[in-house]
Amino acid sequence: MTSSGTAAHGTEDGAGGGPNTPVRLTHRQIVTVLWGLMLGMFLGALDQMVVASALRTIADDLQGLTAQAWVTTAYLVAATIATPLYGKLSDIYGRRPVYLSAIVIFTVGSLLCGFADSIHQLAGFRAVQGLGGGGLMSLAMTIIADITSPRERGRYQGYITAVFAGASVAGPLVGGVFAERSTLLGLDGWRWIFLINVPLAALAIAVVLRVLHVPHRPVRHRLDYGGAAALAVGIVPLLVVAEQGRGWGWGSPRTLALCAVGVAGLAVFVLVERRMGDAALLPLRLFGIKAFRLGSLLHFIVGTVMFGSMAMLPLYLQLAQGMSPIGAGLATLPMVVANVVVTLAVGRLIARTGKFKVHLVAGIAAFAVAMLVFATLRVETPLWWVSVGMLFMGAGMGAAMQTITILAQSDVPQGDMGAATASVNFFRSNGGTVGTAAFLSIFFSLAGPRISAGLADAGEDPAFRRLAGEPANAGPLEEVVRADGGVNLEDSAFLHGLDAPVALPFVEGYVSAAQPVFLTGAAVALIAVVIAAWRVPDTRLSAD
């Protein structure tokens, strides 16, 4: 390896060994590179945390509570499709210029989101954000793989976790401050959640230009635009069905037609990838590597549970516990602390012993336990019990996510590291997209009928009818409860103005609808536990 100055601050000129030889830097040089990666990742992580904590307020303001899943899934869909392309582009042109491009695209999307006029327009602009966000995480993980051995990677995962921990603490605070202000400088307060990304992106670009210099040996790849198009045709219709199927009817012609288009798109995608060979968006030969195959599958399954449950928790805390966006965000601190502590501990243990399977299985099992805890939540559940579930959730994230990535990368040739890392991130994002859409779709499918049933039962009580007929309660109820007994779930802000006994059927309906969702998450997590325990080999990672 070249001298310190060249390695950490030189040009990306192809210095270093052969194409399958990872770049070797000192600890100080690696930390210097990490500063550039961390700021770019913080930009994307902070945005997701801020949006998650304030999404209910945003959806209420734009009259689209039941469509709020689009705001999350649009981002994830775009990121899912873009992620493999970033891997290929960075193999060809180098990590730094492609990473900078991802930040710029993300910033443009943020500006557009700040001026959205409807929930669906916001979802469209979030897709632009996702096109940039798809590169922020996957490229960072690729660069870490470039400059560290498999055994060392866990050690530096702590830095990445610190980014998400900081974003998890700052995000709810920032989101809450903006979401709870009606206006700021002439704009709705929540719009600054997106506009604040502009100065942060400028800072990230300046730091990346300053410190992110690692040697690059170009790899000859053709860009698989046909594969990207086929993938979009395959994924988008299926996700639309996951989001809209409850309203259209799961057996309706529209649903069946979109399912057919999606399946056909995925079939074409496989054919295109086979024809493209090594230049494929997702090189099929990588799936001949058992570790990569298992890592991709586990990323998808665990991503489904993790992202789906993280979309549900803010709803429970704000609807059932009556928390503000700030309070709901701060209530997740046990998850953040557990994530950081476990990530650091597991990273050091892996660096010392080279063994990772035990941490992988234990981490996924912690996800399953967290889902079972969340499935027991009621309206009157004390916050400490919610925190128990969050501790298991954070521990699962800390132990499982880094070890799944290490598993997927462990046997991949260095020349394919960009495409391979992007591919496993693709499966995690895809799982997250499916999980978010499916969890929220199940939730709102169940919530409406259960709230209607609760109102009907409560209506048999004369005291409830008398209280509901008072002007302060009757007005909001007339806007929400339809003549046929159904309820309009597009806006939950009216709950704050109702007397507690009148609001109770709504809150109980929401909470009871969440329980089957979390049980579904537990079942999915248990499937991943079985796969990890029975199929992942108990190997020792190389220190080279």
Weakly predicted, low-confidence segments: 1-22
Q: Quaternary status of these chains?
A: single chain
List the secondary-structure elements in sequence, H or E. Answer: HHHHHHEEHHHHHHHHHHHHH
| Total helical segments | 19
Rg is 24 Å
The helix-and-strand class reads mainly alpha
Largest sheet: 2 strands, antiparallel
Total DSSP E strands: 2
Overall residue-averaged pLDDT value? 80
Ends apart, CA distance between termini: 14 Å
Strand order of the largest sheet: 1-2
Portion of residues in helices? Answer: over 70%
What is the general shape?
globular
Strand content: under 5%
Q: How is this structure best described in words?
A:
This protein has a two-stranded antiparallel sheet with strand order 1-2. The radius of gyration is 24 Å and the shape is globular. It is built from 19 helices and two strands. The chain has helices spanning 4-9, 27-61, 69-93, 95-113, 119-147, 150-179, 192-195, 197-211, 225-248, 253-276, 290-319, 325-330, 333-353, 357-375, 383-409, 417-458, 462-468, 471-480, 500-535; strands spanning 183-184, 187-188. By secondary structure, it is mainly alpha-helical.
